[in-house]
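Review form for a predicted model. The reviewer records the input and the model, then writes brief findings.
Reviewer: anonymous (R2)
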Amino acid sequence: MKTIILSSLLLLYSVLVLAQENKNYKISLSTKCGLCILEKSKEFKIDLTRKNDKITIVYSVLDSIQTLKLKNDVEFKELMNRLGKKNINSLVQSKIPQLIEKYSVYFIDSLKINRASYPDMFNDVDLLGIKNEQFTKEMQLKKEITLDPDYFHITIQSQDHSITEYSVASLNESRFPVTYKLIKSLLDIYRTRNPGTLLDKGEKTLYY
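Model under review:
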């Protein structure tokens, strides 16, 4: 009888551990500079993939924009001609950034971390990858109207392959503590491993 109970407990423990560690999702964070389409120093992207107890982080920092090709793009010309006209806000926030991204060139670097070495980082990542009440409240703030042209765009592909997207303008620790902490942690871990390189803060306003 004791053997059966012990075996059952071990099986239950194994199932719980497996369920806890079987976490797979992707998070993409990118900075955008609204109307400041040529201020390349602010732009960067971070793509994060978690597979159980390992995370791969890809950092992409904007090097240049192929401005000649961009200016000669027929759709871009049409949109620029409509600047100052009706519905320009929605155009700038959707189509123009997409076209700029099409002609953008990035420096790319990556690193891998494991849960044993960075348990706090995994906890921070899970707050976005596995939605919780605090993060849900932050997502609701995205609906607030702001005149700040600089913002972060965040895409989360959950374990069930559902995709959630939202944008955060005027990012700060008091209003968006979960998002702020994750972005700052991701930048800090890269700077610690690679000082004096791609993501040095300097005077760049979105480099936290």
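Findings: Confidence is low (pLDDT under 50) at residues 6-19.
Further findings: The two ends are 59 Å apart (CA to CA).
Recommendation: see findings above.
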